Automatic annotation (TrEMBL):
Residues 58-302 form the Orn/DAP/Arg decarboxylase 2 N-terminal domain. Residues 304-402 form the Orn/DAP/Arg decarboxylase 2 C-terminal domain. Its cofactor is pyridoxal 5'-phosphate. This is Diaminopimelate decarboxylase. Gene3D superfamilies: Alanine racemase (3.20.20.10), Lyase, Ornithine Decarboxylase, Chain A, domain 1 (2.40.37.10). Keywords: Amino-acid biosynthesis, Lysine biosynthesis, Pyridoxal phosphate.
């Protein structure tokens, strides 16, 4: 598609930056092939994150009349790291938060309350009270939550923009666990259930301070056309509510995130311009400037810019299958390990010095398992993957892991959260690293496991 011709060149640039960063990470001692070196580190490509944020902003700006209010709120759960939120804030993005922890991270990054949206499906009264006191926009998930907001608001209208989350019930994608718009999804008010639409119109008529509607109908595995259909339903509902109210009560549509990511190559497809084109085709009026827009992208902003670098500790052959035992496993690729068909990851081989490892004829290419360090048989990042035969001290790179992978640590076997560095490549190829999150120390692991309470059960 014409809007995506830039992606091949971008992909080559990103791959070149990545190879420079891998070599520099070894040279600067962040990770290494030697037995006493660090076995594992995670990297984020700062230029790549900036480019994705700029691409998102430009794609919507190009489609909307000048002056239309737009807030691109990054879904914090995709990469809950304060330096990431700060970088995105500098690029003009806000934050979508869904827990007290995520809200605290956004505040620590200096994100202003009016640049945040609170979305969780199980907000406590205390969370709601705090969000309203700060003026953070809240999307109510259900009737009971709306009644809590009524009670908290008391006599006057709430100080925060209030929306209602709607489930358009447009159907599932290829990954059930990530499909938010099924007939029975746990999220939002089900639009097609009997009486629900009439209730929504009435609920808004009774509460003139409800000014937003929200849907988040996409995710990995959901086709763009299906996501766009959900947004079209949202727009139609807003028109119906406004017609019933006789005024433009709903002034903002929060269309969620959910743009899928290409895990098969370095190309960033589908791009935001393609998604905007898809939305325009489904709901042209969405872009006529009569509604402000909020978006909540997560995976599509960060996934392509993250890399895990892990040492191959040992290699063996079992039942004729070569196996590389590495330090990258379930603790940082939880979804891939438990649902490998839905979450395939590429594996990039590097030698101990951080140079891309050549294939045949220099090194034979064989089908091998890439195993992690955890003590259960299924801890595999790849099965029978054709790669140059790995040796102890080699490194594997696991790209596309910037969202929902190493930032969503799983504490199995008390494996520590690895360090995360951002990297920037200078004009002469020099690489500078900035620490985003230190590795979890053994003392921290012990403390978080009740180290100060050893005698509590005696
Ligand atoms: C997870 C989530 C997002 C982000 O989804 P991505 O697929 O990462 O873009 C946005 N909004 C809500 C409400 C979410 O739960």
């Amino acid at each position: 598609m014409a809007v995506e011709t830039h992606t091949a060149a971008d992909a080559a640039d990103a791959a070149a930056r990545r190879d420079l960063a891998v070599r520099a990470a070894v040279e600067q001692g962040l990770v290494g092939g030697a037995p006493d070196a660090e076995p594992l580190v995670c990297l984020l490509d700062v230029a790549g994150i900036r480019a994705s944020a700029a691409e998102l902003t430009a794609a919507f700006a190009a489609a909307l009349p000048p002056g239309t209010p737009v807030l691109h709120a990054f879904a914090v759960k995709a990469a809950p790291l304060v330096p990431v939120l700060r970088l995105l804030a500098e690029a003009g993005l806000g934050c979508e938060v869904a827990s007290p922890g995520e809200l605290a991270l956004a505040r620590a990054a200096g994100v202003a309350p009016e640049r945040m949206v609170l979305d969780s499906p199980a907000k406590t009264s205390r969370e709601l009270r705090e969000a309203l006191a700060l003026g953070i926009a809240v999307n109510a998930d259900n009737r009971q939550e709306l009644e809590r907001i009524d009670a908290l608001a008391g006599a006057g209208p709430p100080a925060s923009p209030i929306g209602i989350r709607v489930n358009p019930q447009t159907g599932a994608g290829t990954i059930d666990a990530l499909s938010t718009a099924t007939a029975t999804s746990k999220f939002g008010v089900p639009l097609r259930d009997g009486g629900a639409r009439a209730w929504l119109v009435r609920a808004c008529a009774e509460r003139p301070w409800i000014t937003r509607l929200h849907t988040h109908s996409g995710s990995q595995g959901v086709p763009l056309a299906l996501i766009a259909e959900g947004v079209r339903e949202l727009h139609a509902l807003a028109e119906e509510i406004n017609a019933a109210a006789g005024r433009r009560q709903i002034d903002t549509l929060d269309i969620g995130g959910g743009l899928p990511v290409n895990f098969a190559s370095d190309e960033r497809t589908p791009g935001y311009a393609r998604y905007v084109a898809e939305l325009r085709a489904a709901a042209p009026a969405l872009f006529d400037g009569s509604y402000g827009l909020v978006t909540e992208f997560g995976r599509s902003l960060l996934a392509k810019h993250g890399l895990v670098l892990a040492r191959v500790e040992y290699t063996k052959s079992t039942g004729g299958r070569p196996i590389a035992l590495t330090h990258a496993g379930v603790q940082l690729a939880t979804r891939t390990v438990y649902a490998p068909a839905a979450w395939p990851l590429r594996i990039l081989p590097y030698d101990a010095g951080g140079a891309p490892k050549p294939g045949a004829p220099a090194v034979p290419v064989v089908a091998q398992d890439i195993a992690g360090p955890a003590c259960f048989a299924g801890d595999l990042l790849a099965t029978a993957r054709e790669l140059p035969q790995l040796s102890p001290g080699d490194l594997i790179g696991v790209p596309d892991t910037g969202a929902y992978f190493f930032t969503a640590h799983y504490g199995y076997n008390s494996l520590p959260r690895p360090a995360v560095y951002g990297f920037r490549v200078g004009p002469r190829g020099e690489v500078r690293f900035g620490l985003a999150r230190p590795a979890q120390s053994l003392a921290e692991i012990v403390a978080e496991a009740g180290g100060a309470h050893a005698t509590a059960f005696l």
